[in-house]
Design brief:
The structure is a single chain. The chain contains 15 helices and no strands. It is 67% helix and 0% strand. It is globular. The chain has two domains: 87 residues; 171 residues, Orthogonal Bundle (Farnesyl Diphosphate Synthase). By secondary structure, it is mainly alpha-helical.
């Protein structure tokens, strides 16, 4: 099991940043370490699919131990167990994450947006839900807004990483197949990695959908108090800035991966402070 995933991944969005209350940061780090290490099993290295699935099944067995109140010999799960108990976190979101990562091992195409949204429901939304439980703010309204934000962030990551996913030994295409057809783009054309006018139109459609989802969930940042709300504003502002960067390169994510740099942080913080005050 990977043990250093938390430090090896580039993150667009703040993880357990200084904006979060200090007493919650260890739990947030434990949640992200679980998610990133399981994601590594699904995506990194050259293990065969069956071995990846076996390792992810081992993660499920560790969650079962936590549910039974049993200790773990693995430091990642022993640490996670303590935070789950201390904050009364549900186990379903962790299991949903593992279901999504297992799906990544075997599924490389999505027929339509409904299939993709269901993947996002399990690959991204659980993080927001766990954080709301951690903040003791898991109301139905808050969960719905969090789901919209997390789905948007997952979609943004897919479009940001589109060129990387196409370059995998077995190309992974998250663009829904029916939407590729609607915009007149064949898979062979996509794999040639040339941004045609049709591709740019498709990406403009995807960017608009992600932006709408971010703004749909944005009222959550006004309901969460103090620094937690500001952290969420920073996350939303970061997502919106990545969308702007994709637009700024004219949707050519084949040759350029838009990211946030150190130079973007002053603008991001300014946007976070102003966002949601209207």
């Amino acid at each position: 099991m990977p043990r250093d995933a938390e430090t090896r991944h580039y993150e667009n969005f703040p993880v357990a940043s200084f904006l979060l209350p200090a007493h919650l940061r260890p739990a947030v780090r434990a949640i992200y370490a679980f998610a990133r290490s399981a994601d590594d099993i699904a995506d990194e290295g050259d293990l065969p699919a069956q071995e990846r699935l076996r390792l992810l099944e081992g993660y499920r067995a560790e969650l079962d131990k936590i549910e039974r109140g049993e200790p773990s010999e693995h430091p990642l799960f022993d640490r996670l167990r303590l935070h789950i108990a201390a904050h009364h976190l549900p186990l379903e979101p962790f299991r949903d994450l593992l279901a999504a990562f297992s799906q990544d091992v075997v599924k490389t195409r999505y027929a339509d947006y409904a299939e993709l949204a269901d993947y996002c429901r399990r690959s991204a939304n659980p993080i927001g839900r766990l954080l709301l439980h951690l903040f003791a703010a898991a109301t139905a309204e808050n969960l719905a807004d969090s789901d919209a934000i997390c789905t948007a962030l997952q979609l943004i990551n897919h479009w940001q990483d589109l060129g990387i996913d196409l370059a995998k030994p077995v190309p992974r295409i998250y663009l829904p197949q029916d939407e590729l057809a609607r915009f007149g783009i064949s898979e062979d054309e996509l794999l040639r990695r040339r941004p045609s006018a049709e591709f740019r139109a498709l990406m403009a459609f995807q960017i608009a959908r992600a932006r709408d989802l971010l703004l749909q969930g944005a009222p959550l940042c006004r309901r969460l108090p103090g620094r937690i709300g500001l952290e969420l504003r920073a996350i939303i502002a970061g997502g919106l800035m990545i969308l702007e960067k994709i637009e700024a390169v004219d949707y050519d994510v084949f040759n350029r991966r838009p990211t946030l740099s150190a130079f973007d942080w002053p603008r991001l913080i300014t946007k976070a402070l102003l966002f949601g005050n209207g």
